[in-house]
Design brief:
Layout (H helix, E strand, L loop, with lengths): L5 H16 L9 H12 L7 H25 L13 H4 L2 E3 L3 E3 L6 H20 L5
């Protein structure tokens, strides 16, 4: 089990409390399997200690962040910023975790190609599911 500082534990507690107040949300892919795995490992939800709840909340938050990141990558404009993917016209100055504050950066040819392929794959998946074209 991961060790958390007091500040991290307090932040996770606040996130869990806030999440409990939010309207029902649609689970992300893999969340049901994650919940089942945690229940198999730690028993019934009602018997979980605060440490287990915090660990579970962190695992779900990571799963949701990964899903959002993947969705964002699929929807990035091919010629969006090389660091964050935001189109040049909307960019101005932005902050992203690995790069910090930055102006729009020309994406590399490899980035443009990868983004075009990701959009094409997302469109193909959507059309197979009967989604919008």
């Amino acid at each position: 089990m991961a060790e958390y500082s007091q500040a991290q534990e307090a932040a996770l507690r606040r996130m869990a409390e806030h999440a409990a107040e939010l309207p029902v949300r649609r689970p992300v892919p893999g969340e049901a399997a994650l919940t089942a795995q945690w229940q198999d490992d730690h028993g019934d939800l009602d018997s979980w200690s605060e440490e287990i709840v915090l660990g579970y909340a962190a695992a779900v938050a990571q799963l949701r962040a990964d899903a959002v990141r993947e969705d964002r990558l699929r929807s990035v404009e091919p010629d969006g910023c090389g660091l964050c993917g935001i189109p040049r016209r909307e960019h101005a100055r932005r902050w992203v975790s690995p790069a910090g504050w930055h102006a729009w950066v020309q994406p590399s040819n490899d980035q443009i190609l990868a983004r075009m392929k990701a959009r094409r794959a997302a469109r193909a998946t959507n059309s197979r599911k009967g989604g919008a074209r």
